[in-house]
Amino acid sequence: MLTDSGPLQARISDPKHSLTKTYWAQVEGIPDEAALKALATGVELKDGMTRPARVRAVPEPENLWPRDPPIRFRKSVPDSWIELTITEGRNRQVRRMTAAIGHPTLRLIRAQVGEWTLEGLAPGEIRFAKG
Question: Coil, strand, or helix at residue 47?
Answer without folding.
Answer: coil
